[in-house]
């Protein structure tokens, strides 16, 4: 004959555990529904907006150069202002013109310097300037990645020259050259 006692004890233990779990759950529900609980809610409003990048230049025509002859060196300032709400990085490149004067892009040389103000853009004041972009032909002009903080301004000085060894093929040519000033947030 088999002993059924362990099986009965196990079933009794399960029953007791179930009853205790049910009583604990019921007590929790009763306490939560009849207990004094204070509650409160609050809301917060906030505004969301995006920033913008805006570069402005007070100067219209940067390089009104005419009647250049081999050996000429001219200085022209360009002032930039960060009028946006974000700091940005900018770079400057020259756009190749079309027509007979396009060949001037290969002979005119440009250096770019950072100066304190437009009046410092001269041969006399270059000793206090800092070089931004080394001498290159106008075609290869690349003022790379200059940072400008919100509300700040800076003046660049372009030292433009027509080298002494410029050939006669550049004589009598003219071109309208545009500088592209690309900006992006930093």
What is the topology?
Blueprint: H1 5-34, E1 55-57, E2 73-82, E3 88-95, E4 109-115, E5 130-137, E6 142-148, E7 153-161, E8 178-185
Antiparallel strand pairs: 1-2, 2-7, 3-6, 3-8, 4-5, 4-7
Notes on the protein architecture:
The chain has about 190 residues and is an alpha+beta fold. The strands form two sheets. A five-stranded antiparallel sheet has the order 1-2-7-4-5, with no helix packed on it. It has a three-stranded antiparallel sheet with strand order 6-3-8, with no helix packed on it. It has one helix at about 5-35, and strands at about 55, 75-80, 90-95, 110-115, 130-135, 140-150, 155-160, 180-185. The N and C termini lie far apart (about 90 Å). The chain has a single domain (about 55-185), classed as Immunoglobulin-like. The chain is built from one helix and eight strands.
Tags for this model:
alpha+beta; 186 residues; five-stranded antiparallel β-sheet; 8 strands; Peptidase_M73_camelysin
**Helix content, binned percent:** 10-25%
Write down the overall geometry.
rod-shaped
User: Which CATH architecture would you pick?
Assistant: Sandwich
Which structural class fits the helix and strand makeup? alpha+beta
Number of helices, where a helix is a run of at least 4 consecutive DSSP H or I residues: 1
Biggest sheet, in brief?
5 strands, antiparallel
Strand content: 25-35%
Total count of domains: 1
Low-confidence stretches: none
**CATH level-3 fold name:** Immunoglobulin-like
Per CATH, the class reads: Mainly Beta
Order of helices and strands: HEEEEEEEE
Ends apart, CA distance between termini: 88 Å
Widest beta sheet: strand line-up: 1-2-7-4-5
How many strands appear in the DSSP assignment?
8
């Amino acid at each position: 004959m088999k002993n059924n006692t362990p099986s009965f004890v196990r079933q009794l233990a399960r029953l007791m555990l179930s009853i205790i779990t049910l009583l604990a759950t019921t007590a929790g529900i009763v306490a939560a529904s009849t207990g004094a609980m204070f509650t409160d809610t609050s809301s917060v409003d906030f505004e969301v907006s995006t920033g913008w990048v805006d570069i402005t230049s007070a100067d219209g025509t940067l390089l009104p150069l005419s009647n250049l002859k081999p050996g000429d060196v001219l200085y022209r300032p360009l002032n930039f202002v960060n009028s946006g709400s974000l700091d940005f990085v900018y770079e400057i490149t020259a756009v190749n013109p079309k027509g007979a004067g396009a060949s001037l892009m290969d002979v005119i040389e440009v250096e770019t310097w950072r100066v304190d103000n437009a009046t410092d853009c001269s041969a006399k004041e270059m000793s206090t300037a800092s070089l931004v972009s080394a001498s290159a032909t106008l075609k290869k002009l690349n003022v790379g990645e200059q940072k400008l903080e919100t509300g700040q301004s800076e003046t660049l000085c372009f030292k433009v020259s027509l080298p002494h060894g410029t050939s006669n093929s550049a004589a009598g040519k003219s071109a309208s050259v545009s500088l592209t000033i690309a900006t992006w947030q930093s």
